[in-house]
């Protein structure tokens, strides 16, 4: 029987790198969770246990922390490009590298109405993410950058409908023309270039998505997601694909009629499970090939 | 052998009550996690299984949702007072009630620079809490309100020292005059009255604590906590006790010397476990008796 | 205004100590999560930032790991006694120490039907706990040991009733004579002595509690808890108090009638939140004073 | 600009279905977390909000609970096949369905040494999983079944080496010939048929993997994973591919030398983050096409 190894990658996940810039009294902070994954000619490590080609995951970790000083962390996209390029360029058996980064945002505290120089509270909203992939496996250098965020919890208390759906013998849902719509959005967008003002684009993409969510009279979460993705593609030529995954966090109108109380969409139970789950990709027709860009490391099999 | 039952309480934990105010196009939202616990003459339920005195926890749940409509949720403190008073006043065997509330804050999204009427994103920072206790067990009505927050993640990148400590044979820690200090603060403050502008006091207490954390040149997290609590007591005569629990979230200066790199407090590893844990109560000398106010429900035994 | 500091304690939480005994080819493993908390004359650290009396939490951590070698970990109770006694005996300003331990159980894997010498899988069930408190604050040495477990998830599919309860205007619950009863039990038991066969007692207490849960025809979770606690007190004279906290993990009979299906307690929805929460202490009438034994460290304020 | 929708799917995630079989006094229990995802001609829902083809996620939920009664849950694989086939066969616009199931195992409690008829404790170890995919999108019915488990926490205290690796300027790791190796394994295996004794194969696959982990003198986690996957393929002709993802849960030998203590691999610190992460697929050379089988629902974008 022939057995083939495929799709193997290895790395160091969840390096908690914090970088303080303190060249002036007004410090800056970057707070990251960094994962590295290397792909390449590692078959012998699997088949016979030969580590001769396996740069230790500990070394990958050291590199993450060292680069925070040597290269700095201007943006997570640039820092990820530095790391991925380094591994592919300098480590012989490595033909591909994937860097997955989460960034936790902080905001300066106000003291007497003034932003403090070196104290922050963590902004809890969405987590900014970046996936950077550099690949040499077919002899040609290719690079992908995917920006994104996870866990943007957003809710609208009206302006959402759901009706006109088909029914079968298991359908008891009542149609509605006014409901709460809430989600904890994961969004990722793929760039066709690395010449990007990463921070500015991030802010604008988030602004566009939030505005679409708020202003579209929604006939379904599907429609809202498509509108969010399309609006980003229309505004940002450097983005070629947007992927969205949105749990429908159900807010059920609570039945207060046993207590003689009317409840015109005022009191809700926020349920945990189950939840709807809506997912889609929206891409330009001329989007270049995504290659391995969408194959994750940390959640590869889960 | 004589066996005694004591400290029994029962209730419904984690009711996820969401209340939308939609009397005008500009909606308002209150998003709560509510727990109820009743104390009283319930011994027979334990000893012989007689439910004749046990108002079902399901009824407690229904009451939470019904009161969100009937009484409304102006503030979590007032809503909690309404619930606790109701249970003690109307349910015969109940001599005491405890209501524990967490409130998740939302902020309006901006669309074209303007706050939207009915769309919000969840502010992720601290969770506001309230514990309301009403007790009739000795024939006299007593009421306690404890305001608070949990999980305020705050960090200062300088202005913190730790030195001058004793050493023993297991001490290898080096003293430092400049370190990162970070915590995820839990704070609770006990009021001596219910005639309080709850929202205004909450905002001010948080502002005071944050300012103390930022501006005090700290010789230890202990000192910072004491300053935070004392400053609140000095500014708010209606508050008689402040309790604080602060994990010392260690940010270790990463050793970059093997790579020929200097690291003057610029690159850190944010470690998960273990962590220091510093706790204290700061109270007025003339604070009235706390009675059962500090005995929690959800974390009573954990 | 006079301000008083009280209840202060500090320590190192969640030290993840793993001890392998490898004196023979058949290894043994102890896998712990250890917290230390010291109480004593530390006021100056809070009020003026003087660390002269503050044994660093880092030192407490080092001691945990060093004692795993020096004293060993025969049982978590004995290891905790060693640590608590050490801190009170050898560190001058310390008048009290609290050690909180969780132990994760492992079981040997079977290879060809035989227990393997040095490979285990983690048993996921309940987590064994111990709280050890040594106190000298009034000049007399007192010691408390509390055994326990958390998160024993247990379910019975019949043999549980709930009826005969009072009703009010918010009561819509229907009485039942047959329901699923499930909980994730936290139990702690206080010893009056340290001369105990800790492992044997732990096993027996768990066995007794499980048997009571299984065999008692339950009229309420309250009754089941009381029976569990009482049975332990009756069988173990060295235990003087049992505390129990039990979420009522609701399994709702799913309404299949819209689909023309009968559902005689066969298909359930396991709901997350809210849940009932029932708590009580059962103690001997002649139980000695608990002192500070029940004041936790890690969950002191949460 | 042309914009294309792709990869869209929607469904109801995390239905917590519990099924009790009570035809005899000796009850049986199946405790599941079920997700459904449908693929097909849903473009109009995205582009113009037309729900005419969108079977509600609520209906999918109802079907999960109804099928627990109508079809029963003999195994999660069969139950998933019933659900997936139903959606593709009976709902017109649906051309593909994916069912993702987690099963929580319970074991009967012992009372006086005898297994109890209707009381269980949850076995906490690994969670058994199944992914069932039915696809008609190209006019031909294709079916895939993937068995698996997540979170099998397994540790060996010797029999693991790591040396012979390449070094660069960021490498400071020391080689070792004896270390603790621990992981929390996720494994999934793809079947080429649906005519399988699902429970028997599950048990045997787990047994094989555990035995390989225990007995192979490991030169790297990579080698161990490959051996585990290969051994499964060799023993089970009905399995054509095995995927494995294994965090290297680091157990660092604690440095006790400052305290004059030797530590020959006896005392460890179990670290949380970062962790190594090793992943690979092992497949037969003649494995049939996997189609969409490996594209997950719940973790599609995270």
From TrEMBL, chains A, B, C, D:
What does the organism's lineage look like at the top?
A: Bacteria, Bacillati, Actinomycetota, Actinomycetes, Mycobacteriales
Keywords linked to the UniProt accession? Oxidoreductase, Purine metabolism
Coiled-coil residues: none
Specify the protein name. Uricase
Pfam families reported for this sequence = Uricase (PF01014)
For this protein, what is the EC number? 1.7.3.3
Q: Which organism is it from?
A: Williamsia serinedens
Query: For this protein, what reaction is catalysed?
Result: urate + O2 + H2O = 5-hydroxyisourate + H2O2
Q: Which family does it belong to?
A: Belongs to the uricase family.
Recorded hits in InterPro entries, A to Z, give:
Uricase (IPR002042)
Pathway-wise, it operates in: Purine metabolism; urate degradation; (S)-allantoin from urate: step 1/3
| Described purpose of this protein according to its UniProt entry | Catalyzes the oxidation of uric acid to 5-hydroxyisourate, which is further processed to form (S)-allantoin.
């Amino acid at each position: 029987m022939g057995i083939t190894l495929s799709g193997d990658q290895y790395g160091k996940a969840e390096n908690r790198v914090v970088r303080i810039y303190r060249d002036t009294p007004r410090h800056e902070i970057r707070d990251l969770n960094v994962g590295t994954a290397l792909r390449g000619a590692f078959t012998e490590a699997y088949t016979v246990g030969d580590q001769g080609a396996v740069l230790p995951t500990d070394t990958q970790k050291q590199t993450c922390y060292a680069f925070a000083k040597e290269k700095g962390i201007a943006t997570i996209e640039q820092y990820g490009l530095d790391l991925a390029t380094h591994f592919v360029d300098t480590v012989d058996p490595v033909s591909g590298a994937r860097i997955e980064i989460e960034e936790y945002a902080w905001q300066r505290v106000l003291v007497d109405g003034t932003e403090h120089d070196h104290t922050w509270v963590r902004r809890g909203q969405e987590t900014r993410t970046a996936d950077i992939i550099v690949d040499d496996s077919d002899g040609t250098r290719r690079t992908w950058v995917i920006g994104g965020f996870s866990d943007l919890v957003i809710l609208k208390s009206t302006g959402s409908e759901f009706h006109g759906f088909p029914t079968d013998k298991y359908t008891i849902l009542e149609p509605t023309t006014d409901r709460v719509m809430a989600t904890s959005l994961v969004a990722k967008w793929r760039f066709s270039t690395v010449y990007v003002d990463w921070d500015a684009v991030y802010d604008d993409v988030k602004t566009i998505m939030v505005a679409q969510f708020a202003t579209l009279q929604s006939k379904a979460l599907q429609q809202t997601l498509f509108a969010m993705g399309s609006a980003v593609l229309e505004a940002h030529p450097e983005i070629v694909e947007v992927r969205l995954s949105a749990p429908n966090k159900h807010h059920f109108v609570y039945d207060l009629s046993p207590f003689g109380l009317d409840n015109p969409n005022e009191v809700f139970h926020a349920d945990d499970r189950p939840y709807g789950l809506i997912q889609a990709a929206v891409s330009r027709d001329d989007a270049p090939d995504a290659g391995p860009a969408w194959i994750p490391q940390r959640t590869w099999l889960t």
